[in-house]
Amino acid sequence: MPTFSAPDGTLLAYHRTGSGAPLLCLPGGPMRASAYYGELGGLAADRSLYRLDLRGTGGSAVPADPESYRCDRQVGDVEAFRAALGLERVDLLAHSAGADLAVLYAAAHPERIGRLLLVTPAAAALDVEATVEDRTRAAALLADEPWYPAAAAALEATKRGIFDFEGFAPLLYGRWGTAELAHVAERAEQLHPEAAQAYYQDEAFAPAATRAALAELTAPVLVLAGEYDGAPTPARAAEIAAAFPNGEHAVLPGAGHFPWVGEAGPFLAAVREFLDR
User: Is the entire prediction scored with pTM above 0.90?
Assistant: First the structure.
């Protein structure tokens, strides 16, 4: 797999699939290997997907300084990625926790963004965060599903510090079938717990300064929310989009937090329309 050097010398890996104009992809997790993107539900048929493995994940090397896993300290890695590909401007896609890194990159380098696509994003960088009530209300939308009682109980247990991801995972997908089961099964080997814990360390974000810097971002920004997602809900997605001068949001019907898994039709339609304008 191709690699390049981060500013601190850490060797970072990326993966290219598909054909067409480049689309750089930052993974969420936080700090989950980019393999969980796959081909983004078929988007690789339209675009060359460049999936970055963040430091310490997937094929990328473990950094000498574990504090460099902090989100804001990885902005330089994204800029080095762009430079390694020889691109003046980039179309950038980020999912979930990866959106915080993408937002910080856009604030630091607004001139480098062609289009910015935030898929079911986290937004601690903007001080817009999902609440327990958001997740509970979103889960209730799936109350008619046969698996709902067990999944809802697992979600409720998180309030007592009991984290059973496999138990509440059906609530994250909007539907629950073979593709979703396989996606969850791959999760454990793609995670880096130490890096995930460090990603959101104190002082990683300065929302007021970030919002002020984003005033210089003229690129189009699309925030995608899943109809059944609680982080962010469609209402939170609208708040996130409002932070950008040229931001908009869309709600994907029938989708959860991973809208390219399973029934990817609405996701592909929204992404293609945005990227091909």
Answer: yes
